Amino acid sequence: MRYHAMMNESYVDIGGYKVFYRSSVSQNPRGSIVLLHGRSFTSKDWIGIKALDIFTAMGYDVYAPDYPGFGNSQNNPEYKFSRDFKNSSKFVLDFSGKLGLLGFTLVGPSMGGGITLRTLIDYPDIVSSAVVIGSSGVEPMKDDLPRVDVPLLILWGEFDDVIKKEDGVILKNLVRNSELKIVPGATHPVYLDNPSFFFDEMKKFLEKQKN
Questions:
Q1: Hey, what CATH class is 7-210 in?
Q2: What is the pTM of this model?
């Protein structure tokens, strides 16, 4: 299958600092997806697996920012990391608000998963559904996670040696409207190890939300 979506590279000013993001817009959008990234990655890593092209071909507008201080985005002390990711969820609120996004699907691997979970806790009204991949931050947020009520897909690599897959089980048990998929043979970056599995699960999850 060939994908012909046009990807744009842009900057948006948030609080006087430049935030870089990549985007791709569908001709007949069914919704929007925001792709976060892990601590050792940037939005560029979504390009290697053609994530923006594939999700746009599914009918979604897609936005992938570089977190402040990562990739091409300027560092902004307002969003400095804390163990419970509270400053980080504010970035998702500000970024989505600047672009006029509401009711989007938020996708986060590893560090981005921690940001995603904190956003679901702090600003549940801006997100319609979410996907986390080998998410960090489960333990520090255990007391708050039962408040999460949006549909959540949890993906974890069978051989994740960065964050133990038991955290995925804990997360599944804490969030009532969630489903956990352990990805056979995959390590920490499931979406890079097995992109076809990732996109198949994403497609099923997204279509379920539209039914």
A1: alpha beta
A2: 0.95
